Structures
1.
Amino acid sequence: MKIDELDVRIVELFSEDAGIGVLAASRLLGVARATVQSRLDKLRAAGVVQGMAPTLNPANFGYPVMAIVSIEIVQGMGHVPVGTALREIPEIVEMYTVSGDHDVMVRVVARSNDDLQRVLDSVSSASAVNRTRSVVVLQTHFQNRVLPLFAHVGGAAERNAE
Amino acid sequence: MKIDELDVRIVELFSEDAGIGVLAASRLLGVARATVQSRLDKLRAAGVVQGMAPTLNPANFGYPVMAIVSIEIVQGMGHVPVGTALREIPEIVEMYTVSGDHDVMVRVVARSNDDLQRVLDSVSSASAVNRTRSVVVLQTHFQNRVLPLFAHVGGAAERNAE
DNA sequence: GGGAACGTGAGCATTGTGTTCAGCCTATGG
DNA sequence: CCATAGGCTGAACACAATGCTCACGTTCCC
């Protein structure tokens, strides 16, 4: 997928406000409506843009506390059973299988520090979980900040070879 | 902010496809259009819904490799200079200040394992960074999965969703 | 009971959508 | 050197959705 500056500008506009609409975007960018439409279609078809979704902030509906938990699973168990077990815990908002000392890393949210204890316990008590180590998030600098990278890719198209 | 089942159903609909529109959502839910509109306004005003944004997937525009890096900063330096230094690296898509042995945790993406080396080096060479430890993400189970938690808050705990 | 907050259904003018089309430009390749 | 393909344009069209406002019926609680 080749991404140029127009693609970047379109995505930036829709990131500010997805409700902007194809027509308004085309006017702001000084291009034809059909162009914006076809670019969006292509970006979506390529999977670059997965879709448009409302951004939910757990901190604003009762879950201001966040922690990152490294999980070590018991030897001999695949990572699949852990995955299915942990999937049932709604407080887990992110989950990866990773290399290194630990096997799984998750990000959890909680209502309070007290509540975090409960969440961590529910993680620990999942089957196939051996040991956990958790750190509390003190400050969120940014989350899911993909736009600068995307702009970098789009801008590098002219200056650098790919 | 009090969240009821209608709020959850509205957000679920818009999460599937934010372009669904207020009118179509109201028809699917069997409520008046003005109701959906006012609910959305309130959710947005409360900050529960931050906005609607296109979901970008770095894996689909050239960055399929992902890693999580724990960073220890040099004693005596505040976390602010590290933050500003790391902010300049577009490959960092997530950044937290955390408690525990390490001080900062970031999630980075890269074009390949080779490229990951370059990204990690650029992190390590940031000012105030003392030591880093990184793990490679082998599998992404889910990212930013807030809907189940939101549904849980909305009193849909008894109900089996999806 | 009074009042506030909420949901309803309806109305209105305006605007955006999806779709299609022919024409034009530029880059690429025979 | 010309031919072809792909992208962008601007326009057209019917249709649908939007933002806004309103009067009215509930429900809940002071």
2.
Amino acid sequence: MDDQTVVREGLVLLLELLPGLEVVGAAADGEEALRLVPEVRPEVVLMDLRMPRMDGAETTRRLKAAHPEVEVVVLTTYADDESIFAALRAGARGYLTKDAGADEIARAVAAVRGGASQLDPAVQRRLVEAVAAAEPRAPRAGGLPDGLTRREAEVLALIARGRSNAEIAADLVISEATVKTHINNLFAKAALRDRAQAVSYAYRHGLAPGG
Amino acid sequence: MDDQTVVREGLVLLLELLPGLEVVGAAADGEEALRLVPEVRPEVVLMDLRMPRMDGAETTRRLKAAHPEVEVVVLTTYADDESIFAALRAGARGYLTKDAGADEIARAVAAVRGGASQLDPAVQRRLVEAVAAAEPRAPRAGGLPDGLTRREAEVLALIARGRSNAEIAADLVISEATVKTHINNLFAKAALRDRAQAVSYAYRHGLAPGG
DNA sequence: TTCCCTCTCCACCCGGGGGCGGAGCCGGCC
DNA sequence: GGCCGGCTCCGCCCCCGGGTGGAGAGGGAA
């Protein structure tokens, strides 16, 4: 799918030449694509990101919602992080730039049909770095930092959830005075000044609920 | 680098046959590799993950710490999530399984030398799915949530760093009154009650420095 | 020009948060 | 038995943080 007619028709011709690959349809924009897919039942959709009326990411999202079995390979000129992650989150499983040759397109299509992926090498690098930069997610089980007790960690988790002392007291069914004691103790142990720093500490050590 | 002598020597022979690729050394385990690298100054290191004495991830971590310019491509039989993410977090920029052909190894080496990556297709799929499943990390450049202004986001980032109002005022070279104004505005926009909730908000939206 | 938004600053109020000292209870360890 | 650490609670003090209302300067858009 591509909004530039010349590009699209050239691409169709190119793809028809490839063995093991059959072009069942072509669309000029997202809305046309969504109409076309139920008719022609493709296994794989090649998707441009920049299109009029509905962009590729949104089209991909709707396409996967309606037809989860259809695999989407993005084929676009842009390879910025924004586009890449938006497309992949929308459900695309391949991502090629338009300087990819016909053989690379064929490999990518074959890969997604086989449950794998074939991405542009630069995109692969972006993903590698995104994964490498992701937090190593501290193990939830045991091992509290700085000698915090279970109760203190529990209070800390509630602080990280934005609860006030009174709310924490209600949550744990203890008095507010006790909450303050726990807080003072954990502040001393973790060298924290106030609850704002405590929230940050909780996130960095994986003690925040869902963080 | 590989601990099985036969495998290692066979690999060396294979790689020597590839154009544009020169084998400058081979090691049986991580410690030997760390000794060898400063001597032979490789551009790219092929790394097995399962090795005696020091595993590939740890070796990669130390190698990148001592020689950040050296690129590491993992070449292993295992492609479970655990191994993949551990290796990439350790600093590897390529990941191949041992059913990769010589040409794929050559492509991977060339890719990392060129600042890109060439991963095993199955590994690519794992990364794509990891990224797709990851929380929609708000884009750092532009696109602030809930209509926050740049200044408000700046103040928020400092709050998330645990700074007091007075410290934030000093950091931004404005009065504390202005800081309080920004804070009140961003609290209203983001529906926050206090700075503890603000820190949590900052982390969830990727506005916290390093979070 | 006019209007709106952003950024800047002021004064006032007050309630929650944080510091400090002290205390009792319980269970585990020496 | 004695001791220690965790959990519970109390009172007191004080200041930072947050709410409100108001105001002026500068810039961009209509």
